[in-house]
Write a structure and sequence with these properties.
2 copies of one chain form a homodimer.
Chain A: E1 3-8, H1 19-30, E2 36-40, E3 58-61, E4 64-67, H2 69-79, H3 89-121, H4 127-138, H5 142-145, H6 148-158, H7 160-168, H8 179-194, H9 205-219
Parallel strand pairs in A: 1-2
Antiparallel strand pairs in A: 1-3, 3-4
Helix pairs in contact in A: 1-2, 1-8, 3-6, 3-8
Amino acid sequence: MTRVLYDLCGIDEGLRFSPYCWRVRLALAHKGLEVQTRPWRFNDTEALAFADHYQVPVLVDGEEVVTDSYEILRYLDRTYPEAPLLGEGLAEARGRFFKHYAERVMAPAMLRTIVMDLLNAIHPDDRAYFRETREKRLGRTLEEFHSPAKGLAQLDHALAPLRAQLADGDFLDGDAPAGADYLVFGNFMWARCVSSADLVSNADPVYGWLERMLDLHDGLGRNALRVTDIEGAYR
Amino acid sequence: MTRVLYDLCGIDEGLRFSPYCWRVRLALAHKGLEVQTRPWRFNDTEALAFADHYQVPVLVDGEEVVTDSYEILRYLDRTYPEAPLLGEGLAEARGRFFKHYAERVMAPAMLRTIVMDLLNAIHPDDRAYFRETREKRLGRTLEEFHSPAKGLAQLDHALAPLRAQLADGDFLDGDAPAGADYLVFGNFMWARCVSSADLVSNADPVYGWLERMLDLHDGLGRNALRVTDIEGAYR
């Protein structure tokens, strides 16, 4: 059986930067499950028609087609119960908060910092779509929204509870990484793949956690292609 | 056996506003455990000497003396395992994040809004201690820190992940309240007891959750004495 993940790519097929797809790639590695990733771009709407869906990640696992990163993590826990990602009951309910925290608090601060780098990393054919959808959502142009100074200050503030959590253990989920770690770390992979911006100072406890996360699963995160690795791509 | 909780009080012995003590009072009610609260003020250092501790909450449960609100919740789970508050493993690790989120993200925004009301609710003999310790921590005078406009904007931003979480279920912990709800709600009880400030608009999903939390355990939160109930106390 081939397990396939449709995974957003940018100017290069190997540049995979979606925070949602990163959650799933790390979750699959956590479960020890092999996967073949298939590069997908914003305009490849037909490629996902079989899933009746319009955005990635989409996981095809044998007969099963699962969309939405959080739902994929839940699906993996149901189908492969060893090494829980989200768990059940209180663990799952609380795990969901990390998703919201990453998407609603961290992501806006990061986007403000890296948005022009992100645009640059997106395939030229996708840039008009990206600009149009994001400017509509933000209510202003990408250039107006772009402010690394504001974004980094916002991010510094947003990281306060992560810092405190990481004073209590090596990972957000305690002594070993699990779903909460992947839900949050996906955003850091997003920024890392498209930008060389230093989001976290090396004196920050979050920095040590990022280093540990990058090393997990044979360096899955650390070995990912970054835009800075592509000749002439980073402007 | 008498179970005793040392509980911060203000200008009136019945005015109990500590967010940390509220966590514990709600947690005890969640477990169906009776408790006798004993009013304590910041200057009553000798009253806690038996616990080798200098701040509340302090819980005396038979032979056991437990300090720190989070540790008390853990103690209650160990000793009375029915109706878990924090749970174990992933649930407990993630539960801890709500403590940090409440203390590091929500509390500063709320304090900025209500700090002068809080000072007013504190017993006159405790005000010098309160001012001195808080001004040292804040690096400026209470008056300089006080800014409801900034605090409410900060709080509005801080509530984003709570809002999203409450779109998925009635409580932060899912269909029924547990530790995460109490850890966060303690801060709202703090503000409610000392101030009449409207922190959350009634169109906000957080508002509905606050109403449900106030009603829990025979209206423990809703029936608590507020400074506005004390004649001549609210200025």
